[in-house]
Amino acid sequence: MVRDLLYFDFDKAASIWSQFEAGLVERTSVTEDTGKDRAAGTRFGIPGVAEANLGVDYIQKRSILQSKTLHHDLLNRVEESLRRAGLVADLADQPSDTSSPDAIRAAIGRRPYLLAAGNSVLEDYRRILAIAEKFNEIIGFIVKASQESAKKSAPYLELMQMISDQEKATDQLRDRNQKAVAKSQVSKMRRQVDELLKPQLDSVDDWLVQGMRLFINTFMSTRINFRIYPFSECPGFQVLCNLKRDCFVDSDLEHLLYGYSNRPNVPLAVFGLITSLPPKEPAAFDPMKEFQDDPELAKSAAFEQGFRGVFGGMEGMEAIVRFSRYPNVTVHPIAVYRSFAASSAA
Known about the structure:
The protein is an alpha+beta fold. It is built from 12 helices and 9 strands. The chain has a domain at 1-85.
């Protein structure tokens, strides 16, 4: 199996691997990746990679190459170790025509790690905000460019010449009534031309742009949602992830979006730790119940109750933008990649 590794949480993977290796880290050194400076352990008891030196004395290209080699090797070994331990639910083991969310949930069971592949969507909220704030300017430019292009077209020039000729002919009329009727017809023709040039795209109201900015800056300022749809017959089931910007293998996110787009038309896969399995019904647990059951506590700890109540209210608002709901599964991603099955032919 060959992989195009798009995203890798090195620290998370290294933490898992060190636990399988009894936590023994023999040596760490520093690597300098393009676009980010970070300390990375290059020796976690990984055969074949343990001697990789990603020190600052290496030239940049060598550093990047060895860093990516370490990423791929570490991912393979972490995934293999977790599989051997029976901790991974691979949705590829389920029939591709599965249409029941409950059957998918049952297949996952209690295994904490998930591997899922399929159609995907990438939602960068910082990108949405940047586009929204310039949306009306962009629309204005597109409209202006379309109008100027139309004015230079042969049909438009011919039409304007006809109107001009009609105006000249109208000016030569002697009869007032005939002249008035002719002028009215010319004016009508000009209005029709202006109507054709009116923008077909509508601008966005300022209040809507400001509202989007408020929500994104408050709740989703760094959010990059990644959704995987593993079963085409069950689009209601999604694997939802939040990707960290500094974990993309290619530090230029624009380059990745240009290559794969926000809605990739090739299947991608995500491997990660399940962090939320939202139930059908709301959870029965209420962290504020202690104050309801004990009136004396509610009086003596009123200050605490008040502040914790504020957090409770905020949770409801945050739930609106978290998008973690039944039957979706929320995952802390370790890796996102595109895989290729190697041909058995020589």
